[in-house]
Amino acid sequence: MRAYILIVVEPRMEEEVVKKLKKIKGIVEAEQIFGEYDVIAIAETESIAELSRIIDKVRSKTKGVIRTSTMITKESYRRLR
To answer: Residue 68 falls within a domain, yes or no?
Structure first.
């Protein structure tokens, strides 16, 4: 299962949050973005329970995170290059 975690962080904390996210097991990618959210993280897990643990770590144990919004993919399509 793949999920996109959109994150609002405190001002000037984006880089630090991305560095911390990359250390969380299950987070396969994290990037700074522009727009309503400041950071996006991509999680890949085997279960909702595992995803829930990841989101808990992001929200409660990552300094600078204000709020999150998570989108779980239904299906995935990737174009081969």
So the answer is: no
CB 17 within 8 A of CB 7: yes
| pTM of the shown model | 0.90
Long-range contacts of 28-34 (CB under 8 A, 24+ apart): none
Question: What residues are paired with 29 via a beta bridge?
Answer: 42
Tell me the two tokens of residue 6.
């959109």
Residue 81 has pLDDT above 90, yes or no: no
* pLDDT, mean of residues 26-47: 97
| Burial of 71: CB neighbours in 10 Å, binned 0-12, 13-18, 19+ | exposed
Rounded to 5°, angle at Cα 50 from 46 and 51: 95
Query: How many domains are contained in the chain?
Result: 1
